[in-house]
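Final paragraph of the annual report: two paired records, presented back to back.
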Amino acid sequence: MELLFFNRVPKVGSQTFMELLRRLAIRNQFETIRLAPADQQMLVSLVAAHTPPASYIKHVCYTNFTRFGYPSPIYVNVVRDPVERVISWYYYVRAPWYYVERKRAFPDLPLPDPSWLKKDFETCVLSGDRECRYIEGETHEGIGDHRRQTLFFCGHEPQCTPFNSVEALQRAKRVVEEQYAVVEELNTFNRINRNAFKPPVSEAVKQIVRANFTREIEFYEFCKQRLHIQLRALRDPALTLPTTTTLRRRRAQRRLGRL
């Protein structure tokens, strides 16, 4: 009996992973918990109050349960190529259904400028538009800030907020190594939440953007490599996993590996 914690990163295919967990919940008779914590203490006590087996799914940074006197859940997550992820977010916030949902939730919210809605990602990058200048050290951008995938693994500390920082990268790597049973990679499973309004972006423009995502890309590649080593270890028990994974997390990996 375990508690599964999926602190889902936005725009990495987490809808697919949520659907997988929903089906597993039916098959294995555990509850999917989707709660919005006000702060870390409330989050930990709220999640810990549920009787395992259960899962918690929410856009939230890594939270250290032991710091508040509770045992750690089984942490899992999904990562995506950082540049593909920001492109996905760029068009997601311009999709018609996004503003329909926003308008329903917030009737007084003004509609965006039509020229902003029509602006494509390539033009945004090549013109040096503020929205598409990914500057190292920045902590926030207008509509959300989905450039920082490491933030979801680094945690809630102030050192985790600057974009593309060395400290956020190293902390995120350490948390993944020590706390996460599995960090899946988007391209290893099918997507169910595609945006038909997202046009193709040239490789040349992607390369321009990648130059500013060096440490975010390093983290993504780190997670991919770790996953591949884990998959090889699952197929060959003689191999050693690259972390000091506990027996509890090994069981979780085997269960996920059979899916």
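The closing record of the year follows.
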Amino acid sequence: MLNDEEKLVDLYIPRKCTATKNLIKAKDHSSVQINVGLVDASGVYTGEFETVAFCGEIRENAKSDDAFNRYAINNGLMKDL
């Protein structure tokens, strides 16, 4: 929520799992958030990044690697082989 001065005042901002689109609960201690740095055509880091989050259920079932690759291909971060 934003206050009158347009500052963020929420103490907890829930995240969504990139693979399942479900909310990641506050007590899901096996969840991860990964910031992927973006590069330009010459391979130099641009200072920007995309955030990817996976819930513990995806990680426990050993599906996070596949989900990350699928996300990277769909968003143009990686080429499909």
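The longest helix spans residues 64-74. This concludes the annual technical report; the extension proposal builds directly on these records.
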